[in-house]
Automatic annotation (TrEMBL):
<dbReference type="InterPro" id="IPR013096">
    <property type="entry name" value="Cupin_2"/>
</dbReference>
<dbReference type="Pfam" id="PF07883">
    <property type="entry name" value="Cupin_2"/>
</dbReference>
<feature type="domain" description="Cupin type-2">
    <location>
        <begin position="32"/>
        <end position="98"/>
    </location>
</feature>
<dbReference type="InterPro" id="IPR014710">
    <property type="entry name" value="RmlC-like_jellyroll"/>
</dbReference>
<dbReference type="InterPro" id="IPR011051">
    <property type="entry name" value="RmlC_Cupin_sf"/>
</dbReference>
<dbReference type="InterPro" id="IPR052538">
    <property type="entry name" value="Flavonoid_dioxygenase-like"/>
</dbReference>
<protein>
    <recommendedName>
        <fullName>Cupin type-2 domain-containing protein</fullName>
    </recommendedName>
</protein>
Amino acid sequence: MKVITNAGRFCATNQAAYEEHLRVPCLSLGTYSIPAGRLDPQKPHTEDEIYVVLAGHAKLWTPRSTVEVQAGSVIFVPAGEEHRFIEVDRDLTVLVVFGPAEQTANEADPE
């Protein structure tokens, strides 16, 4: 067992910020913070993602739909799907779970 400290704490910067808290081969966990009025620069990932919104308000955009998100929202985004948070009108704090661990799908097999 591991107690994960600082997960879900808003990172007070002037831009979107991601802090990883846990990495094991099958998943990784981090906190994504976007200050109100700022842009989300993320690009599609090669891993599946689950977002758990802890605080704030925004919309999550994909080419197929846009949904409002706020504390309590839980959203699944499949690997490769273009997406980003838009219209962040209150500081957004999101727990992000990647499966497998973020960027491991791009790592070359050493053998």
